[in-house]
Amino acid sequence: MASEREEVRLLGKWASPFSNRVELALKLKGVPYKYSEEDLANKSADLLKYNPVHKKVPVLVHDGNPLPESLIIVEYIDETWKNNPLLPQDPYERALAHFWAKTLDDKILPAIWNACWSDEKGREKAVEEALEALKILQEALKDKRFFGGESIGLVDIAANFIGYWVAILQEIAGLELLTIEKFPKLYKWSQEFVNHPVIKEGLPPRDELFAFFKASASK
C-alpha cells in the first residue's frame, strides 16, 4: 500500500512514447512525482545506476527502488496505487490486456515505426505490414470507447504511440496509415484518447514533437 510520504521519481525522455506511458499512468492515478529528463547521448550516473542492464528510459524510482521497462512500470503503478484501476479484475480480461499490451510492443509498434522510417526500396512492404498491424488493433478494439471499456486502461496507455505519435510520424513520412477512412473505429479511439483531459495534459507538445522527429528524419 502506498504511503503519503513516499518519493516517486521518473527518469525519462520527453519525446519517448515509452516514458510517456509512465507519466500518463502516474497522472491518471494522481501520483505526484519528480521528473528527470535524460540525455541519451550522455547518460546520467543515475540512469546507469538504476538501469545497468539496458541503460534505457524509462526508469521509475519508488522510495529508492528502481524499476525499468514501461509496461512493467505501469503495472507496478496500478498495483501500488489502487484508485482508478488500469487493469480489469476479471482474470481472463486481465490476461487479454497483458496480451494486447505485449502485442503492441512486439508486433504493432515496430511495424508502424518501420513504415515511417523505411527507405523507398522497402517502403511498400513496410506500409503493407503497418496497415495489417493497425487492422489487427482495430479488431481488438471492437466497438468500445477505449480498449479498457469506458475508461482508459493498460492497453490504451500502451497504445499511446498509435493515438498520438503516429499522426506526427506519418505526416513527416508523407504516409496515410491511421486515417478515418481506413480505420474509422481506431481513428475515433485516437481522438477520444488524445482529448481525454488527463491524457491531453500529459502528452508532449505536438509542434515540438514534430520538430524533433522532422530533424531526426533529415539526418
Which secondary structure elements does this structure contain, and how are they paired or packed?
Blueprint: E1 8-12, H1 17-29, E2 34-37, H2 45-50, E3 59-62, E4 65-68, H3 70-80, H4 91-117, H5 120-141, H6 154-158, H7 160-173, H8 184-195, H9 197-202, H10 206-217
Helix pairs in contact: 1-3, 4-5, 4-7, 7-8, 7-10
Annotation keywords:
single chain, 219 residues, alpha+beta, 4-stranded mixed beta sheet, 10 helices, globular
How would you characterize the overall build of this protein?
Helix 1 runs parallel beside helix 3 (70-80), helix 4 (91-117) runs antiparallel to helix 5 (120-141) and helix 7 (160-173) crosses helix 10 (206-217). The protein is built from ten helices and four strands, in the order E-H-E-H-E-E-H-H-H-H-H-H-H-H. The protein is α+β, with helices and mostly antiparallel strands. It has helices at residues 17-29, 45-50, 70-80, 91-117, 120-141, 154-158, 160-173, 184-195, 197-202, 206-217; strands at 8-12, 34-37, 59-62, 65-68.
Radius of gyration: 17 Å
Contiguous uncertain segments of 5+ residues: none
Largest sheet: 4 strands, mixed
Secondary-structure-based class equals alpha+beta
